[in-house]
Amino acid sequence: MRLLFVTAALALALASQTATAATEIHCPPSLLVQSQPDAPTGWSPYPGKDSHVLSGITLTEGDRATQMAAAAPATLAPDREVRRGRSLIQVWEFSGPRRENVFLLCRYRNTQATLAVDLPRSVRRCTVTLELDARGERVEEPKAPLQTDCR
User: Fold this and answer.
1) What percent helix, strand, coil does the chain show, rounded to 5?
2) What residues does 50 pair with on adjacent strands?
């Protein structure tokens, strides 16, 4: 089993500061994860660092600490999806006052490590643009970076 240490706290802090100033939040396009293997007796562990690209977002309602500790966090489904050529745009709308906290969870390819940030109450909309193939299926390893935007 590997213990994961996320070394992107600085990136998340900067994203939060930028979001507060401009009320615009974007997931960092990549995440640097440092792993420390649990070595069996007689073996020497050597840590590794891997960069993982953004693969998707989840919007979750409720207390972040409680939801992240839950086996199945309360995720919000997109309010609508718009297909434009080989792109699928998922949209979450927050038109009225929110009773619960909503946070953005940034997910990265080939790791369980994630980044999360509470959305300011001034955020009214989040979008993610996904790349589709000719059959309309989501491309798992898109050519262009995933586009996210909350404002």
Assistant:
1) 15, 45, 45
2) 33
User: At which residue do the structure tokens 């970076």 appear?
Assistant: 145
Q: Are the C-beta atoms of residues 100 and 118 closer than 8 Å to each other?
A: no
Spatial separation of the C-alpha atoms in residues 94 and 135, rounded to whole Å: 31
Query: Each residue of 114-148: pLDDT tens digit?
Result: 999 999 999 999 999 999 999 999 998 898 889 99
Q: Sign (positive/negative) of CA torsion 128, 129, 133, 137?
A: positive
Burial of 73 (0-12, 13-18, 19+ CB in 10 A): middle
| Number of domain units in the chain | 1
The owner of tokens 């706290």 is 9
DSSP state of 82: E
pLDDT tens readout for residues 18-56: 444 557 999 999 999 999 999 999 999 999 999 999 999
Which residue segment(s) compose the domain that 66 sits in? 2-150
Q: Give the Cα separation of 21 and 82 in Å (integer).
A: 29
pLDDT > 70 fraction of the chain, expressed in percent and rounded:
85
